[in-house]
Amino acid sequence: MSNLPALMIAVPLFGAFTTPLLKKRYQLASLWAIIITGVSVILSLLLAQEVMDKGIVMYVFGADNANLVLPSGYKVPIRIMFEIDAMGVFMAISATLMSFIGALYSYSHVKMETGLEKYYALLQLLEVGILGMVLTGDLFNLFVFLEIAGIAGSALVGFRNYRGEASEAGIKYLIVSSVASLMVLFSIGLLYGQYGNLNMAYLSRQIGFNTVDMIALGLLFTSFAMKCGAVPMHYWVPDAYTEVPAGINPPLLVATYASLYALFRVSFSLFATITWNMARVGWAMSIIGVLTMFIGVTMALVQHDVKRLMSYHAISQTGYMLLGVGVGLTVLHDPQALASYGRDAMAGGVFHIINHIIYKSLLLMTAGALFYVTGTRDLNKMGGLARKMPYTTIAFIVGAAAISGLPPFNGFASKFLIYETSYRLNPLLAVFAMVTSVLTLASFVKVFASAFLGPPLEKFEGAKEVPKPMIVAMLILAALCILFGLFPNVVLDKLVYPAVDALIKFAQYQTWGGLA
Predict the structure, then answer these.
(1) Is 69 exposed, middle or buried (0-12, 13-18, 19+ CB in 10 A)?
(2) Among 4, 257, 298, residue whose Cα is nearest residue 153
(3) CA distance 512 to 505
(4) 410-425 vs 427-451: helix crossing angle, rounded to 10
(5) DSSP code per residue over 415-444
(6) pTM of the predicted model, to two decimals?
(7) In angstroms, rounded to a whole number, what is the distance separating the alpha carbons of residues 283 and 428?
(8) How many angstroms separate the Cα of 246 from the Cα of each of 106, 307, 343, 474?
(9) Residues 55-69 pLDDT 10s
């Protein structure tokens, strides 16, 4: 138990490096990936229990007293520190669960592809990158794991390299990841040059209001906003989510929101001490959130490619998360407003992260199932598939209701919190959020009518439901949509509010497990 943080990284990393040994043995590579990702889920739940018991879990890789002596005589401790609070373990559970779901779905979905040992190795390497990002307490380690996730993600996006669109999407994803990583690295250099340390707990007590700090904040904010697909830096999302195999959509979604997590962590953990400016950053985050949700949903309305349509909705839903946490950041230093609605606004934004990961993964996998059966993603060439694919139809209905914010599904619980609290800050914010939900519902009604209703087309007379592993993966997520919607207080009390309080406490100068 004392080595759980190390095992969180070591187990999927071991799986990533051993999977290529199973070349030309598709089933073994698939099963091995399912086993490794399943073990990771168990480890994340055990780690969550540790965090619930202790509040903060600290883990040091390397000897505490070992030092590297540079030519200048300066001594540098050789160690990597993980500082894990409720927010970090919240994201870790999301990463491991979606990696497992993705591996399970992929067992049948990509069985006809070649190079599957590389596919499953990259899936597990993507999981390693995500886990490192959300568990570390050091900015440079955050950069390293961001790079790992970016490289693995770009290779998976371009996995079907016999398709020109996939290769283009993979290169675009790689360029965006590289530019974002360079901006993060440059900001790290600025901070290290000033303070001589990159531990977040230490930096949070040192950062002040000066030009270099503001430049570093601007670079970090822009880079992580770019990686999470916020407007106007959303251009890579439709290509990447459309071309990546549907089994990779769940972990790729978590990778996207690991960058959103990093944006929240930087805003609250490093720069929240700058009261006047962070209120402005909160407003900027809220406005970007509104623009993201509205532009994303309007672009989705005109799409005919079912997976591309859902990809634009992924952009739109990111706006809700930015809006909720942005409202909380805006009133962070007003104790009365924070207690009245700021904390609940942040809870809505954080809760929407996991809700969106669940229902958007479900919807993208239903799109993958449609492509698996019909060989097309064009809604104009589909019809009458409800009779042929009953389980996929049920999964789609659940996912569409959840993303539209209809009760009693999970999307309603988080969206209601965001509506209510954003209205308290400014009614226009809530109006835009609710209009976006109405447009989202209209969009998915169109998808349902085009793909599932009506008499079956003649060319689909012999169509049948997708294989069982794909069905099981979709039904697990559909069940989570229902359970999280029926019992939102359980998720809020056990996962969401502890994660929110971890951000707030850190921003309010509470000790986060000690300093490096």
Answers:
(1) exposed
(2) 257
(3) 8
(4) 150
(5) HHHHHHHHHHH-HHHHHHHHHHHHHHHHHH
(6) 0.89
(7) 13
(8) 8, 9, 35, 11
(9) 788 888 765 555 555
